[in-house]
Amino acid sequence: MVILKKLGSCLLIFLEDYFIVYNEEETSQKIVQVPGPQVDPEVSKSMEEVLKPENKIITSVCTSRDAEFLTIILQNRQLVIYDSNFNLVSNILSKRAVSKAMFTKHNDVLIADKTGDVYLYKFKDKSEPTLLLGHLSMLLDITMSACGKYVITCDRDEKIRVSCYPNAYNIVSYCLGHKEFVSHVVISNDVLISASGDGTIRFWDFLNGTEISMLNTNDYVDNKSVVEKFRKEMDAEKVAIDALPIVDIQVFGNIIAVTLLGYHGIQLYCVNKCNEQVNIKFLQNLKITPEILTFTLNHELLIFTETSLLKYKYDKDRFVEATSISINELFANYKVSSCNEILNINSKISALYKRKFDNVQEYLERKKLRLENKI
């Protein structure tokens, strides 16, 4: 899996179990290898399976608001924290698989796991993570309000929950409206923005749990055959879908960048809040070849493909290409094998859709056999 992050003047590129720190100002680079887990000698057999070397893969990354800390989540349940100089601060194993993590206002870490629980980890105190709140479904993302008083979580069951922090047992509201799993939540200008497997982006007054506006990204897919292809694939798995799911959404200022499953490009929107209304303007479909591995949006749009690192600048309601750097040229000293292996996102995302099983027919057949045996 490939992940891009900006940290100050550095561009961080996460690949497998290491990351490359590229300083754009000094045009220097270095590689940081994520250490292995600190394992208890009496580890269980199930944990031994999780800790196999092939599971030491970076799956999620987050940075603190003040850019002082960096947290890395790995598939083997590792949670690793670095400071801004990339010195190791903490290296722990979570009891359960982690979906996402984020920093609070005071640089503690909130850990959202795949069983539906959120833990508070005060790594500076070297204390054990403590349970903060829980869902009845797999958590997919977590964020926090700018004031630090509210934590927002979303899950596979279409729910968005707004809780007080740190007293998360006080639930402020639920934001309900998505038809499929909610994969992303982000707050911008005091508006909660959510993205879902139903292909929509929704804008919320999260304190009241009311929807302000809604955008269907599939309305701007110019190649409808992509939607039809995905629909047929999911039909084979007995899942009825109407739209391409959102793979990633990033927000910077009033610009939103979105990628959809199977769609080779990035959709770009401009969003403006006026009083209690949200005005959405479609900017462009940015077609990219070869396939996009990952991207990041800040003062510029950086796109990582199999062959190039593309940089786009925003100019007059359009993103225009500024530079294109060869991956082989940029990272000549490193073996960037992940660039040749596109993550199979299809299987991961399609697994989030709920299946319908016809167990009634099986029951009726068993009942028929019992009746026949009695005769």
Automatic annotation (TrEMBL):
Q: SMART domains annotated for this entry?
A: WD40
Places the protein is found:
Nucleus
The cross-references to InterPro entries, in alphabetical order and at most eight, read: Trm82, WD40/YVTN_repeat-like_dom_sf, WD40_repeat_dom_sf, WD40_rpt
UniProt-listed Pfam families: WD40
What SUPFAM superfamilies does the record point to?
A: WD40 repeat-like
WD repeat segments run 175-214
- What GO cellular-component annotations does this UniProt entry give? cytosol; nucleus; tRNA methyltransferase complex
Biochemical pathway: tRNA modification; N(7)-methylguanine-tRNA biosynthesis
Q: GO biological process: any one?
A: tRNA (guanine-N7)-methylation
Keywords in alphabetical order = Nucleus, Repeat, tRNA processing, WD repeat
The record's listing under Gene3D superfamilies reads: YVTN repeat-like/Quinoprotein amine dehydrogenase
What's the stated role of this polypeptide? Required for the Mettl1-dependent formation of N(7)-methylguanine at position 46 (m7G46) in tRNA. In the Mettl1-wuho methyltransferase complex, it is required to stabilize and induce conformational changes of the catalytic subunit. Required for binding of nanos mRNA and repression of translation by the mei-P26-bgcn-bam-sxl complex. May cooperate with mei-P26 and nanos to derepress the BMP signaling pathway. May cooperate with mei-P26 to suppress expression of a subset of microRNAs. May cooperate with mei-P26 to regulate bam expression levels in germline cells during gametogenesis. Required for the formation of N(7)-methylguanine at position 46 (m7G46) in tRNA. In the complex, it is required to stabilize and induce conformational changes of the catalytic subunit.
- Family according to the record: Belongs to the WD repeat TRM82 family.
- Protein name according to UniProt: tRNA (guanine-N(7)-)-methyltransferase non-catalytic subunit wuho
Q: Which organism is it from?
A: Ignelater luminosus (Cucubano)
Q: What is the lineage of its organism?
A: Eukaryota, Metazoa, Ecdysozoa, Arthropoda, Hexapoda
